[in-house]
């Protein structure tokens, strides 16, 4: 069945995003070209300019499409440990969702090596709101006033656990071939991260 104009536009936009992700991940933002992306997407350059304006906007759209959105759905009326469990499971679900682009890890690694202004936009729109939610949960788990830099260190220590699995998945699979990332495995991993984090925060608090 033929697509109408609106559906064709959406399909073209999605093809451009997917092709751009692959090209940006392989060549980096500075070396990638709109023409190469359009050739891979089987779209014309005019379509890329129509949907995204320029290369910077296309790159920002690719990053935004793959990032973890703000977790507004995490209930605020639960105890902090349960909120942490919901938060961690939501992050893992996003990182290891079925159909996640194979190029995503490379793209993010490229952005960490050579950051663009799109990173600041991504941080302000998505990463910072999630970080503040996580910081609030960690503060509650500590259960007392804590110096700001110590709170950041505790928050980063919690987050580093799922970041490790995301960025080192190939190493994890080679060291532990039985590691899987099915929904059930992600449930178990979320439980582990929460149990480990709560125990570590308790020990940290008692050491002060």
Produce the secondary structure layout.
Layout: H1 5-31, H2 34-41, H3 45-52, H4 55-66, H5 80-95, H6 104-113, H7 117-142, H8 148-167, H9 169-175, H10 183-207
Helix pairs in contact: 1-2, 1-4, 1-6, 3-4, 4-7, 5-7, 5-10, 7-8, 8-10
Number of helices: 10
* Average pLDDT, all residues: 89
CATH first level of the largest domain: which class? Mainly Alpha
Largest sheet: none
Kindly name the structural category.
mainly alpha
Based on CA atoms alone, the radius of gyration comes out at: 20 Å
User: Which residues form runs of ≥5 with pLDDT under 50?
Assistant: none
Order of helices and strands: HHHHHHHHHH
Tally of strands: 0
Question: CATH homologous superfamily of the largest domain - what is it?
Answer: Tetracycline Repressor, domain 2
Q: What coarse outline follows from CA principal-axis ratios?
A: elongated
- Number of domains as seen in the coordinates: 2
Share of residues in strands: under 5%
Helix content: over 70%
Query: What is the correct CATH architecture of the largest domain?
Result: Orthogonal Bundle
> Could you give the distance between the termini?
67 Å
CATH topology title of the largest domain: Tetracycline Repressor, domain 2
Structure overview:
With 208 residues, the protein is an all-alpha fold. It has two domains: 3-65, Homeodomain-like (Arc Repressor Mutant, subunit A, Orthogonal Bundle); 67-206, Tetracycline Repressor, domain 2 (Orthogonal Bundle). It contains ten helices and no strands. The longest helix has 27 residues, at 5-31. It is elongated, with a radius of gyration of 20 Å. The relative contact order is 0.10.
């Amino acid at each position: 069945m033929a697509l109408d104009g609106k559906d064709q536009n959406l399909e073209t936009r999605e093809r451009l995003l997917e092709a751009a992700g692959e090209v940006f991940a392989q060549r980096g933002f500075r070396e990638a070209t709109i023409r190469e992306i359009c050739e891979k997407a089987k779209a014309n350059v005019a379509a890329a300019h129509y949907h995204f304006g320029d290369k910077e906007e296309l790159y920002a759209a690719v990053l935004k499409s793959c990032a973890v959105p703000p977790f507004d759905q995490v209930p605020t009326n639960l105890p902090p440990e349960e909120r942490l469990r919901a938060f961690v499971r939501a992050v893992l679900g996003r990182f290891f969702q079925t159909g996640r682009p194979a190029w995503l890890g490379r793209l993010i690694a490229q952005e960490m090596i050579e950051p663009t202004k799109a990173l600041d936009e991504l941080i302000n729109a998505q990463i910072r709101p999630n970080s503040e939610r996580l910081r609030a949960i960690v503060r509650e788990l500590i259960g007392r006033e804590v110096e700001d830099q110590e709170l950041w260190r505790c928050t980063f220590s919690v987050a580093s656990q799922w970041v490790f699995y995301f960025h080192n998945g190939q190493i994890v699979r080679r060291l532990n071939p039985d590691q899987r990332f099915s929904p059930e495995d992600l449930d178990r991993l979320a439980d582990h991260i929460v149990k480990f984090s709560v125990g570590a925060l308790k020990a940290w608090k008692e050491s002060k």
